[in-house]
Amino acid sequence: MEENELHYDYYAPETFETKVSDLRQVNTELNLTIGNLILESANDKATISSLEETVGTLLFEVAALKGGAA
């Protein structure tokens, strides 16, 4: 005000092209996140399967020690 200057903050209007570009970026990020979650899920399922096998083996050994299995 003291220098009698006008300041204007310019905001670029959102166009169809910029919106599509933004949505493509969001879509790419979501696909990457989904891919990572699928990999984590597969790893978790493999771990669970391995643990179930270990528990089964341990139960068989406990039964054998108690004389319940030949």
- Assembly status: single chain
Helix content: over 70%
- State the low-pLDDT regions, or none: none
Integer count of domains: 1
Structure description:
The chain is an all-alpha fold and 70 residues long. The chain contains one helix and no strands. The longest helix is centred in the middle third of the chain and has 50 residues, at 16-65. The radius of gyration is 31 Å and the shape is rod-shaped.
Give keywords:
mainly alpha, 1 helix, 70 residues, rod-shaped
Write a compact overview of the structure shown.
Helices cover 71% and strands 0% of the residues. The chain is rod-shaped and about 100 Å long.
Q: How are the SSEs ordered, and which strands pair?
A:
Layout: H1 16-65
